[in-house]
Amino acid sequence: MINTTGMVAETATKIYADLSGREVPHQAEAGQYPQALWDALTENGLHLAWVSEDNGGFGADYDEVFGAIWASAQAASPVPFAESLIANWMLDRAGLAPADGSVSFALTGHLPTADIPFGLHADKVVLFDEAHQEIALFDNRGADMTSNEALSPDGSTRMVFSGHVAEASAKTNLSRRAIEALILTVRAVQMAAAIETALNLSIDYVSQREQFGRPLSKFQAIQHQLAVAASESAAATMAATQAASAIARHKDNPENAWHEAVIAKVQIGHSVEAVTVPFHQVHGAMGYTQEYDLHHYTRRLWAWRDALGNEHHWSKLLGAELAATSPDQIWKGVTTGDWQAS
């Protein structure tokens, strides 16, 4: 299970409970940005949880912060909390000061165009240029943006930076794999939390809704669908937990957690495919309405599943690498979590 204890996780959980009720995602999609929620998160410094204390952050344990990310996904958070955590971590690892305001990230060396999660709502963006091993911070103002909020409720955008000069930049010893490992693990935690929340919504609905004189939960077909979904939810949570634990173990070099992160992204991607259709089906027509909460989770699940590549993309990469790896090393990785060559 994801660790939801500790100061960071418990503070985030309380903030989301107090300021992110079920109406907040609906209001956000209608154009009412939840500024009070974002202000509470930043006033408590939670967006800087992975920034070192010397650089103005908490220097919090990775696993504790994953608990805060879990809480944000359970609330279908319409603010760039996870994105700011990742982006400020990237800046910190490059020796740069954390960004003022909200910030997102992109892995690209191909400016002027970049795909930015939460780009519509982030003030700034951190870009990783792998070719030059450089981290750079840009202001989003003036960038041309295109988005599809029907598929990406968090306001992910494709941005075109024309004539923009970085506010700050620095060389970094972070590898692309290290950044990928953290991003994939964050998405895995978010997806596992959203699957569990959508499962609970579905169980509550079929327990209360009656048809033909009895609750929907009494029908064998419904029971079967939710039993499959529950098993997928458990598998997703376990995969996310394994990836989060690997990041925590390899905090000095997250690249060493890359395999666990990829495995989690693949497993949970398959889980998303397996659960989202039955979640909507057991709700009947209600499951397809704008007013009901379910779509806030399933649409995010589809977006997170595709973020940085879906399970098919990562399966191919991982499969190609394992095909070139010795059987002994694969066994060592599977049984001990140590995928580094001896």
Structural features, described:
Its cofactor is FAD. This protein is an alpha+beta fold. The chain has 2 domains: 7-171, Butyryl-Coa Dehydrogenase, subunit A, domain 1 (Orthogonal Bundle), CATH 1.10.540.10; 176-336, Butyryl-CoA Dehydrogenase, subunit A, domain 3 (Up-down Bundle), CATH 1.20.140. It is 53% helix and 11% strand. It contains 11 helices and 9 strands. A hairpin with a 4-residue loop joins strand 3 and strand 4. Helix 7 runs antiparallel to helix 8 and helix 8 (258-283) packs antiparallel against helix 9. The mean pLDDT is 90.
Secondary-structure element string? HHHHHEEEEEEEHEEHHHHH
**Number of structurally distinct domains:** 2
Largest sheet at a glance? 4 strands, mixed
Low-confidence stretches: none
> Reading side by side through the largest sheet, how are the strands ordered?
1-3-4-7
What is the approximate shape? globular
Query: How many beta-strand segments?
Result: 9
Strand residue content: 5-15%
CATH class value of the largest domain: Mainly Alpha
Helix count, DSSP H or I runs of 4 or more residues? 11
Radius of gyration: 20 Å
Going by helix content, strand content and strand pairing, the class is: alpha+beta
Could you tell me how far the N terminus lies from the C terminus, measured between alpha carbons in angstroms?
Answer: 30 Å
In the CATH hierarchy, the third-tier topology of the largest domain is known as Butyryl-Coa Dehydrogenase, subunit A, domain 1
For the record, what is the CATH homologous superfamily label of the largest domain? Acyl-CoA dehydrogenase/oxidase, N-terminal domain
Helix percent band: 40-55%
Mean pLDDT: 90
**What is the name of the CATH architecture of the largest domain?**
Orthogonal Bundle
Domain Acyl-CoA dehydrogenase/oxidase C-terminal: 188-301
Cofactor: FAD
Keywords: FAD, Flavoprotein, Oxidoreductase
Organism: Parasphingorhabdus halotolerans
